[in-house]
Structures are given as structure tokens and as C-alpha cells.
Amino acid sequence: MAAAPPAHMEPARTNLALISAIVGVATIGGLLFGYDSGAVNGTQAGLKDAFALDDAWLGFTVGSLLMGCALGAFLAGRLADRFGRKRILIAAALLFLVGALVQGTTDIHAVFVVARFCGGMAVGAASVLSPAYISEVAPANIRGRLTSVQQVMIISGLTLAFVVNYFLAQAAGSSLGIVAGHPAWRWMYLAQSVPAVVFLVALQFIPESPRYLISSNRVVEARAVLTRLFGTVEADRKVDDIRASFAKDHHPRLADVLAPGTVLRPVVWAGLVLALFQQFVGINVIFYYGETLWQLAGVSEKAALERNVISGLVSVAACFLAMGVIDKVGRKPLLLVGSVGMTLALGTMTWAFSKGTLDAHGALSLAQGYGLVAVIAANIYVVFFNISWGPVMWVMLGEMFPNQLRGSALAVCGLAQWIANYAVVQSFPGMASTLGLTPTYALYTLSAFVSFFLVRAFMPETVGKELEDMDGWSGGGH
Predict the structure, then answer these.
(1) Where in the chain are the domains?
(2) Is CB count within 10 Å lower at the N or C end of the chain?
(3) What CA–CA distance (Å, rounded) separates 35 from 195?
(4) Phi/psi at 277 (nearest 5 deg)?
(5) Cα distance between residue 117 and residue 72, in whole Å
């Protein structure tokens, strides 16, 4: 039998089994992100009843998750540079678990809000760290496809929440009915504890990001992880490339995102455009307020929950389509196609809502034909979002920043993304009841229209590039 070749002659290999396992574990955070965001969709009647909330307090209670998300995203980006991606994800898993249990059991509104805020911190941390972590272990040629799994899991989590909400409401007669001694809406929160435990346990079995290890001068550990992922020869090459991508005089810090004259480096501005406009197009109004939205359009609670499930399934299918093409056609073309498609679909929804009438109670009612148009347009909108801005934003935020900037840039962009999310979600109930759905959706349409020109003018293309080749540390962003 021939002797094995020496280590330096070992052919390059990619351990797809290990990489797939890492992706699977990291994206449980995305599943929880989606579930926690969507669970509130069917619980609003229960929240109003249990805590005697008016519309303003309901908006605050729903939005408290998003305030936590903003802080969690900012802190996670910074803390991940100090303590590692894996440790912060473990902390997020614990927050997911505690937040779910407390939201599902407390009778004190202030405690509920604090628990929802803590759950939001977990969502914010997972939202920025899961795609970044995947990007830091994935081969460049399939990095977009693997990171897109995050959006699939987010939408799967949302859909799971819609399905759980639907069946619990059916079993109890409504979200206020009793199941196993507790109101159905309480179980909608408690159900999240199951995947939270799975996430917490699974995180114990995956390695730390090799790029974080090198930034912390733990080169031997990083080489061992890279060897498991890519083989000895490729590991040695990557160690050298990664070490060269970090500043030699200081550890990654928040000030790295700054640039003289323009405040932030161009690549960070591009990240902010992605983060902000993904929310300004109003996608989370459908996800967070889908039941309320369709009831405003004149359908029953049961039909509204059914339409939420349909929108979720359509979203998952669209995400799989994006996964199939993102590493072939690139990130920027998908964003441009998405902007055009969302503009047309949102414009159609705006037109359909403009044909509605108000009943004696001030609720919007749509004739059957216009209601069908609105439903079809909403699902087309969801498709275009989930083949473009949905997955592509998370992919690009995970990969577009140089190693030295990644944690700090994610902190800034994650904070901005969740503040925008909060602003849209918090403003929707008041805007829908005072301005009406037509002007509200006209604003989302305008945002989608503007996003096309911003992407065309400012967005870099990252397809196929190694993370060590990303520009931005020297000030360039294109």
C-alpha cells in the first residue's frame, strides 16, 4: 500500500458535512428570530384582554421586542469581537428561552414587556451573528447559498408561528379560548421554548469562528478549525490571508467604521442603505400585523390566520428560489429585481385599498374583487421580497465588510435595521387607523421605488469574493 502523502502535499478539500452542520445550528437562531417576531401576530387580542391595552399601548408592547432587537444587534456585533461569535449566540439562546417562558406565564404587563425586550435582544443578536458566522466558515463559491438559509429559517419560523397560532386558536375557538388550562395566546409564546432549548444544546457542538480566533491571536485553534473545514494546505493559506486582513496595531474596535470627511466608510454607508430600506418597504407590517391587516380589509380572524400561513409558505418557496440563484446571478441584480417587483406589487395593493369603504364602525371593507387583488398583490410582494431584499440583505451584511470592520459594522447596521423595523411597526396601527391603508401603503411603495436607485448607485457586488478581499478598510466601498 502506498504511503500517505506528506501534510504539505494534501489536496484541498471542503468538509461540507461539518459546514452544513454549522449552518444548521447557526440558523436555528434565525428560526427563533422568525418565530418570536411572528408569534405576536395571533396574540394581540389576548394582549389587549389580559393587560387592558389600547392601540397605543398595544403598539408599544409589540414594539418592545424591536427595541430589544436594536440593542441586542448593536451589543452582539461589538461583544462578538471581544468574546467570540459562539459565546454570544449561547447567551442569545438563553435569552430566547427565558423570554418565551416569561411571556407565556406572567400576568404583569411590565414584566411581559421586559421579557419581550430580552427576547428582542436575543433576536437582534441572532439576526447579525448567524449570517456573519456562516459567512466566516463557508467557501466563497457557495457562501451566498449557505447564508441564505438564514432567511429560509426566519420565514420558516414566522410560518411555524402562524401555523401554531392557527391551530391553537382553532382548538380553543379563538386566541382567547383555553387550551390545557391556559389561554391559547399564552401557548403561542410558550411553544418557542422548545427550539430555544435545541439551539442552546446544539451550540455546544460547533466550533468558534476561525476569523474571530485569529483576531484574538488564537492562531493554533483557528488553524485546527480551518483544517477540519478545508484541509491542511488551504488552512495554512487562509491563516496567512486572514492574519494579513487585520490591523497589526489594534484589535477590532468601533472606531474602525469611521472615515474622515464622510463620517463612515463607504461600505458601511452601503450596509446602512440595505439595513434601512429592507424595513422601509413595510414587509414586517404583513408579518407582525398580518391578522390585523386582513381584518382591516374585512375578513374574519380565522381567514386572516389562514392567509398568514399562506403568505409564510409562499415566502419559504421564494427563499429557496433565491438560494438557487444568488451565487450565480449575484447579489446586486437580485436587489434591483426585488425593488422593481415590490414597487409594482405595493402599488397594486395601494390601489386596491383605495377602492375600499368604511363601515359604521370605521373599519375598512373591500369588495370581493378588490380583496382578491389585494391578497394576490400581497403574496407577489412577499415573493419579490424573499427572492431579493429578504435573504440578500443578511447575506451581504454577513460578508461585505472586511474582517477588521465586521463586528463593528454589523453593530452599526444592525442597530439601524432594528430601529427602522421598530419605527415601521410602531407607526403602522396609528397610521392605518388615522390615515388609512391607502396612504400608508403609498409610503411603502415610494420606499421600494427609491431603493432601486440607491442600490444601482451605491451597492457593491460581493459574489465569489473571499472575505479577505472585501474592500472598505482603506475607505473604498465599490
Answers:
(1) 17-469
(2) N
(3) 10
(4) -75, -20
(5) 9
Residue for grid cell 483576531: 215
Q: Could you give the 3-state DSSP secondary structure of residue 365?
A: strand
How far does Cα 407 stand from its chain's mean position? 17
Q: Which residues of 340-349 are buried (b: 16+ CB within 10 A; e: fewer)?
A: ebbbbbbbbb
Enumerate helices (H) and strands (E) in the chain, giving the number of each.
Answer: 20, 6
Q: Residue 296's closest CA among 363, 366, 370?
A: 363
Dihedral sign from CA coordinates of 114, 117, 123, 125 = negative
pLDDT at 44: 81
Phi, psi (deg, nearest 5) at residue 173:
90, -25
Q: Please state the separation of Cα 340 from the chain's center in Å.
A: 21
Report whether 377 contacts 349 (CB < 8 A): yes
CA pair distance 131, 128, nearest whole angstrom? 6
DSSP secondary-structure letter at 5?
P
As beta bridge partners, residue 263 has 259
In whole angstroms, what separates CA 430 from the centre of its chain?
Answer: 25
Phi first, then psi: what are they for 322, rounded to 5°? -60, -40
- Paired residues of 258 in beta bridges: 264
pLDDT digits (tens, 9 = 90+) for 146-203: 999 988 898 888 888 878 888 888 888 877 788 888 888 889 899 999 999 999 999 9
Residue in 161, 132, 415 with CA at minimum distance from that of residue 272: 415
Give the whole-angstrom CA distance, residue 282 versus residue 476.
31
With a CB cutoff of 8 Å and minimum separation 6, the contacts of 232 are 7, 8, 10
Where do the H-state alpha helices sit in 355-467?
A: 368-386, 389-399, 406-434, 437-458
- DSSP character string of 294-322: HHHTT--HHHHHHHHHHHHHHHHHHHHHH
Cβ(361)–Cβ(293) below 8 Å: no
Q: Which residue has the higher pLDDT, 467 or 4?
A: 467
Q: In the numeric block, which cell numbers belong to residue 441?
A: 401603503
Say which amino acid occupies 416: A
DSSP bridge pairs for 178:
183
What Rg value do the Cα atoms of the chain yield, rounded?
Answer: 23
User: Is the Cβ–Cβ distance between 175 and 46 less than 8 Å?
Assistant: yes
Sign for the CA dihedral angle at 12, 323, 420, 290 comes to negative
65, 91, 96, 393, 414 from 76: Cα distances, Å: 16, 10, 14, 18, 9
Which whole-number Å values give the CA distances from 170 to 94, 183, 201, 372, in the listed order?
31, 12, 32, 24
Fold for the domain defined by 17-469: Growth Hormone; Chain: A; (1.20.1250)
Q: Measuring CA to CA, which residue among 155, 154, 168 is closest to residue 310?
A: 155
Indicate yes or no: pTM above 0.85: no
